[in-house]
């Protein structure tokens, strides 16, 4: 399989394998995902840095949605309907469709909305396509850095023309860990208490504001590990596949307050240590 690993990077053309009957469909799905993400990213860049007049809230005053989110999602839904009619849709801003093909797209048209609105160039377009066995292909596109993270089940993960492999760091004390915080105030307070426990054991913590990019940072060794509570499927679907295909482990555990889960991502050794620490912190604070 060595030569096959070389056929994906240049120009982001997916591999054409002959060893599985479904490889042609999987390659088509990845090609569509890349084209969709790049086109949506270009659309978003055209409005990045503009005014923040057309902004509303969703679940809380800090959970924002912009015209850019809605426009990018509408573009993606129309694009996928033209390229892959019959596929299911599960998108952040409300796009839903049942599948007649066995495939479903999980879409975050703009992961990092607050960063986008505050002119912080840390946001991305995230698309994953799933079948009944889980993720088939995933793309996270960061147009500000011109970085395209891609993964295909069983074929590895790539950043532009570079094959990805997660960090081999095994010691949490020297590990750089990413995390994020929820929109609801009570949840954030509990997350901050857990983060304080992690800070006492890890090298340091980073909070970028985009779960999709944080997961990709684990895949490309910019972070050694990542955890975050209360993420949604569209936040993590593509990034989780990219981490797994880069040799990492992704799992879930309980959230600090009420319903919800915490996602964990790292190499196998560090993943287990990080997860034990976070879950012990959650339990020590009386979370049921």
Structure in words:
It is built from 7 helices and 15 strands. It is of the alpha+beta class. It folds into 2 domains: 7-163, Fructose-1,6-Bisphosphatase, Chain A, domain 1 (2-Layer Sandwich), CATH 3.30.540; 172-284, D-Maltodextrin-Binding Protein, domain 2 (3-Layer(aba) Sandwich). Helix 4 (185-199) crosses helix 7 (268-284) and helix 5 (211-219) runs parallel beside helix 6. Strand 7 (134-142) and strand 8 form a beta hairpin. It has helices at 23-47, 67-83, 113-117, 185-199, 211-219, 233-245, 268-284; strands spanning 55-57, 64-66, 88-91, 96-97, 104-111, 124-131, 134-142, 147-152, 156-159, 162-163, 176-178, 204-206, 225-229, 249-254, 261-266.
Question: What summary fits the major beta sheet?
Answer: 8 strands, mixed
Radius of gyration over all CA atoms, rounded: 18 Å
Beta-strand segment tally = 15
Shape type: globular
- The proportion of residues in beta strands is 25-35%
Protein traits:
288 residues, alpha+beta, Fructose-1,6-Bisphosphatase, Chain A, domain 1, 15 strands, 35% helix, 25% strand
What are the SSEs and their pairings?
Blueprint: H1 23-47, E1 55-57, E2 64-66, H2 67-83, E3 88-91, E4 96-97, E5 104-111, H3 113-117, E6 124-131, E7 134-142, E8 147-152, E9 156-159, E10 162-163, E11 176-178, H4 185-199, E12 204-206, H5 211-219, E13 225-229, H6 233-245, E14 249-254, E15 261-266, H7 268-284
Parallel strand pairs: 3-5, 11-12, 11-13
Antiparallel strand pairs: 1-2, 3-4, 5-6, 6-7, 7-8, 8-9, 9-10, 13-15, 14-15
Helix pairs in contact: 1-2, 4-7, 5-6
């Amino acid at each position: 399989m060595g030569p096959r690993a070389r056929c994906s990077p240049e120009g982001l053309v997916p591999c054409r394998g002959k060893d599985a009957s479904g490889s042609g469909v999987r390659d088509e799905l990845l090609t569509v995902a890349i084209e969709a993400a790049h086109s949506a990213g270009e659309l978003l860049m055209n409005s990045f840095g503009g005014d923040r007049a057309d902004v509303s809230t969703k679940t809380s005053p800090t959970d924002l949605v912009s015209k850019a989110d809605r426009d990018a999602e509408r573009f993606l839904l129309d694009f996928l309907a033209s390229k892959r009619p019959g596929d299911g849709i599960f998108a952040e801003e409300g796009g839903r469709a049942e599948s007649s093909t066995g495939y479903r797209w999980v879409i975050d048209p703009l992961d990092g909305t607050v960063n986008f609105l505050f002119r912080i160039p840390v946001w991305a377009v995230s698309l994953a396509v799933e079948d009944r066995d889980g993720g088939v292909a995933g793309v996270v596109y960061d147009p500000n850095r011109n970085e395209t993270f891609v993964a295909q089940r069983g074929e590895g993960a790539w950043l532009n023309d570079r094959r990805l492999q997660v960090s081999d760091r095994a010691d949490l004390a020297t590990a750089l860990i990413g995390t994020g915080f929820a929109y609801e105030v009570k949840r954030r307070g509990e997350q901050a208490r857990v983060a304080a426990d992690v800070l006492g054991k890890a090298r340091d913590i980073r909070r970028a504001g985009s779960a999709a990019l944080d997961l990709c940072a684990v895949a490309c060794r910019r972070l050694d590990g990542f955890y975050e509570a209360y993420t949604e499927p569209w936040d993590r679907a593509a990034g989780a596949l990219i981490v797994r295909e880069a040799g990492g482990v992704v799992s879930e555990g309980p959230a600090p307050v009420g319903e919800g889960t915490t996602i964990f991502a790292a190499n196998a050794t560090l993943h287990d240590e990080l997860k034990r620490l976070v879950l012990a912190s959650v339990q020590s604070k009386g979370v049921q």
